[in-house]
Amino acid sequence: MLKWAIIFAIVSLVTGWMGFGTVSGVAATIAKVLFAIFLILFLLALLAVVGVFKVV
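User: That's the sequence. What structure does it adopt?
Assistant: Structure tokens below.
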């Protein structure tokens, strides 16, 4: 997921540099959404691991 977010961010930068504003905006939005999903899943996995290894 993070890999695709980085790819879309690079596509956004390149298309913005070439003057394709609409494509750049769409790619940037997709990159933001994918990064947000990645961050949420990462935090959930981190909380699950902390919960599993918590000593009571």
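DSSP finds two helices and no strands in the chain.
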